[in-house]
Amino acid sequence: xxxxxxxxxxxxxxxxxxxxxxxIFVIDKKLAEENGVADAYINPEIxxxxxxxxxxxxxxxxxxxxxxxxxxxxKIKIKALDENGxKIKIKARGFLARVLQHEYDHLQGILIxxxx
Length: 116
Prior knowledge:
Elements: H1 2-7, E1 12-14, E2 24-27, H2 29-35, E3 40-49, E4 53-60, E5 63-73, E6 75-81, E7 87-93, H3 94-107, H4 112-115
Antiparallel strand pairs: 1-2, 2-3, 3-6, 4-5, 6-7
């Protein structure tokens, strides 16, 4: 999945986007490193969304050439397991929070076209 993200020039990818029925997503390694967070999330759960939201244009590897303004929480808290099975809890904001919400949505069967 990490290779697919790089190949597609994406910032994240959920397992169901590559035909796997797993609760896993990955985010761009550089984005993860810049924010000091893991790049793989297993059985993720967003536990908190801020009331403050912002709107930003999003695209999706599952829907080529489809870009829309999507409103999302500015800040979230997410818990998951990393690739080694270690429990992780993250407070994310800004672009990182948006990417995590986008990929989490995939695991819930939600696409950006469902959000607009």
